[in-house]
Amino acid sequence: MIDSYFLRTGSTSKKRKLDDRETISEHRDSQTAGCMDDISNSGELSSRLSCFDNISSKQSLEWKKISAENLDLDYVQLFTKTEADSLFQQAERMIKYNANSKVFLHGKWHNIPRKQTAYGDTGLRYTFSGATVSAQPWSNAGFLKDICDLISTLTGHKFNFVLVNRYKDGIDHMGEHRDDETDLETGSAIASISLGQARDFIFRHADARGRSAKRKIEPVKLELSHGSLLMMNHPTNVYWFHSLPVRKRAFLPRINLTFRKMVVKS
Ligand SMILES: O=C(O)CCC(=O)C(=O)O
Questions:
Q1: Is 157 annotated in some ligand binding site?
Q2: Where's the Fe2OG dioxygenase domain (predicted)?
Q3: Per-residue model confidence as pLDDT tens digits over 99-109
Q4: Which of 24, 58, 105, 111 is most buried, judged by most C-beta within 10 A?
């Protein structure tokens, strides 16, 4: 874990260093939600589900609440190492990435420094930074739907889409941005699963960016570990930018899955 990070827990606003931070166990409503397209289909699903069959063990996990001004995050080590290793291997085997993903920034198209694709309910697509990523069907990578269902059960949030980013090493990265596109359901949470190389993840308040920053607000820095789940709750994405910076000493690949609730357009 890294420096200059403090958090406020519950109603107190005491500053604590990350290493001695308190954990908050949130017992969330179970069995309240599922992902939207139903692909359940015979024995294939039950064999895929083997690492999720003990859902009750996931319901007693210790969640950490991370808050700052208009920042509301929940973090948990959702999967054991064995489960996370198995999910990483399934991801490597089953996920098909788009060729030549680009974004349009500052008047030019740029290749993105990672690989990307998406899965989700039929017909959904996500447009950001000038690019549109269309969902492949859940049935092409059913374990993603299983993770989606698990997160929905644990958190009560429903999702219909997952954006997948693969970073081959610490040189691959994602620049500072907010997930505030109109394709996303207003006020919905985003659930981020990390598999593989642990990487730093940094939140910076919109008023505290760049040389002409209006205010001094400390960035919030986390390390996202193999098998972790980070919930980015509303209104975090209205006020805070986030990034996954280059880390030259990170050599292993990482796969990130961000489950989202997209607006369904008729
Ligand atoms: O890989 C990550 O953890 C970053 C993902 C992200 O920022 C996004 O999908 O908007």
A1: no
A2: 158-263
A3: 989 989 889 99
A4: 58
Q: Would you say 71 and 240 are in contact if contact means Cβ atoms under 8 Å apart?
A: yes
Residue keyed to tokens 């030019």:
108
Distance CA 49, CA 41 (A): 12
Residue 43 φ/ψ, nearest 5 degrees: -70, -20
pLDDT tens digits for range 72-86: 999 999 999 999 999
The reply to whether ligand 1 has any atom less than 6 angstroms from the CB of 165 is yes
180 is in an annotated binding site: yes
Beta bridge partners of 67: 8, 72
Ligand 1 pocket mutation, candidates 169, 258, 262, criterion most atoms within 8 A of CB: 258
Gap between the Cα atoms of 118 and 166, Å rounded: 11
Nearest to 144 by CA among 59, 35, 31: 35
Token representation of residue 143: 């374990």
